[in-house]
Amino acid sequence: MPASAGGTWFCNGVLGAYHQGREPDEGELKLFRIDRKIAFDWKLGSPAEGIEGDDFSVVWSGYLRPPVSGEYTFRVYSDDGVRLYVNSVMLIDRWEPVNLEMTAAKEKIFLREGEFYPLRLEYKEHYINSTVYLFWEAPGLELSVVPEDCFFVEREIFDKYK
Ligand SMILES: [Ca+2]
What we know:
With about 160 residues, the protein is mainly β. The protein contains one helix and 15 strands.
């Protein structure tokens, strides 16, 4: 459902910038698209047509809107590396290759129900499996994949890349 804050309208989703190459800054930008959530198991395959299944990277950006107020712990299950920023705080820095591992944030972060917090998740795949899931938990909120209705992007971005 669309929502507004500070005169800006938001729609559900998160913007994925897909690159061929392990480093988003150095790789070739192949595709922007709106993803509904960050929960992908591409296994040996490719995330999209025109992108090879090895040596790619994705930067997701948008907003999180928490369903409850409290101290959140984020976790990413991935293969390979990830860096997570919430409200511009770097919570996970695990950029080396990993094999299907859950990585917990170094610290908790307090988030208020119903507010929009900037999200940035950088992900890279070296080879073989490619997998990435974003989880959160908080008091009163069980450990779970962050659900679709808690991701937002500005409506202009949604309309351009949906
Ligand atoms: Ca891999």
